[in-house]
């Protein structure tokens, strides 16, 4: 088992589901997960900074994305 690997009970099922997908389905799932991640980031920022306007939240969202990209997240 790789160092830092945590035993996750559903990991095997998850990997089986991925293997059963076509390449196109796996790409679609990757895009869905990426969109979900962006939605969660935006929602988290809105919850953390309720005083900010939608424009300010969007600016903060873009800043956080850029910071993550620079770190190769």
What's the short version?
The chain is mostly helical and 73 residues long. It has helices at residues 11-20, 23-48, 54-70.
Structure overview:
The chain is 73% helix and 0% strand. The mean pLDDT is 89. Helix 2 (23-48) crosses helix 3. It is mostly helical and 73 residues long.
How do the helices and strands line up, and which of them pair or pack?
Elements: H1 11-20, H2 23-48, H3 54-70
Helix pairs in contact: 2-3
Radius of gyration: 17 Å
Averaged pLDDT:
89
Shape: elongated
**Poorly predicted ranges:** none
Report the major sheet.
Answer: none
Structural class designation: mainly alpha
Percent of residues in beta strands? under 5%
Number of domains: 1
Order of helices and strands: HHH
Whole-Å distance between the termini? 23 Å
Number of helices, where a helix is a run of at least 4 consecutive DSSP H or I residues? 3
Q: What is the helical fraction, as a range of percent?
A: over 70%
Counted beta strands: 0
List keywords for this structure.
single chain; mainly alpha; 73% helix
């Amino acid at each position: 088992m790789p160092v830092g690997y945590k035993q996750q009970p559903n990991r095997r099922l998850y990997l089986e589901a991925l293997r059963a997908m076509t390449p196109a389905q796996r790409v679609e799932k990757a895009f869905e997960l990426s969109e979900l991640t962006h939605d969660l980031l935006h929602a988290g920022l809105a919850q953390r900074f309720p005083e900010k306007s939608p424009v300010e939240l969007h600016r903060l969202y873009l800043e956080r994305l850029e910071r993550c990209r620079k770190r190769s997240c």
